[in-house]
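Reviewers of the previous submission asked for a worked example of the structure-prediction workflow described in the proposal, so we include one complete record here. The input consisted solely of the amino acid sequence. No template or homolog information was supplied to the procedure at any stage.
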Amino acid sequence: MFVESRSEQLSLEFEEKIIVVNIAESFDTDLKKLSLQDRKIVKRKLEQIDTFFEEGNLKSFIQKIKRVRGIKLLSYTPSLYLLKVNAKLKIFLFFVDDPIFSQKIVTFLRVFASCDRDKVLKSLVELYYQEELDRLRIQER
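From that input alone, the workflow returned the following structure tokens.
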């Protein structure tokens, strides 16, 4: 059910909540750079996650992801998570529980080699939290 497209969006009902899955363009780009074997491994992991959603088994998905710690922001807690594909590959994603619209939103951001974690994390933090980081830098002066 997951395809290599920025516009791919999947909505599934789960206990009166909707799960919206987005795949970022950067994720597609990363996926295309992987070897054919690694692409197959990542796609199998995404299919496993898709199965959790289709079965309404959000708990299993949540057990597979880990919140990224150490991002210091002023106003809020980042919703950035890490999903282990295997020892060699990881995925950064956003996971947001939106109570206003009764939905959970998952956005797959980047797939990368484990050894590149810090570099990829730094680029994501700078990209998505730039305004907040700027306010933090001003406050620390």
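The longest strand covers residues 103-113. We consider this example representative of the routine output the project will generate in years two and three.
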